[in-house]
Specification:
Layout: H1 7-14, E1 31-39, E2 43-51, E3 56-57, E4 63-69, H2 70-77
Antiparallel strand pairs: 1-2, 1-4, 2-3
Length: 102
């Protein structure tokens, strides 16, 4: 839990705004994306959706107005690992290879 006692910092924290760099059209790669979905003339929402290379997997269905790939989404938010002491180390190889190139 975050507790901010100084009202100036509290106002700054509560009014933080992040502007995403949206993409229009269709993604080049299959994968998970953060999307802006429009439902008719006056309704819409943001959600995570999978692009299968041909169509969006949306629940409920709507028109995707724009998208951001998950890596860009994460990088634009500057997300920190929940427990810094147990954060995975960049560049450190895992004990077992989780995948292999083919």
């Amino acid at each position: 839990m975050i507790q901010i006692k100084n009202s100036v910092w509290a106002d700054l924290y509560m009014n933080c705004e992040i502007v995403l760099k949206w993409n229009a059209g269709k993604p080049d790669l299959v994968g998970l994306y953060f999307v802006a979905v429009k439902y008719g003339a006056s309704a819409g929402e943001f959600q995570f959706a999978r692009w299968d290379g041909e169509k969006w997997d949306l629940q409920p269905t709507g028109d995707v107005e724009a998208f951001v790939d998950i890596e860009s989404f994460k990088n634009q938010l500057s997300v920190q690992w929940p427990n810094a002491a147990k954060a995975p180390s960049a560049g450190k190889k895992p004990d077992k290879d989780l995948w292999e190139e083919v």
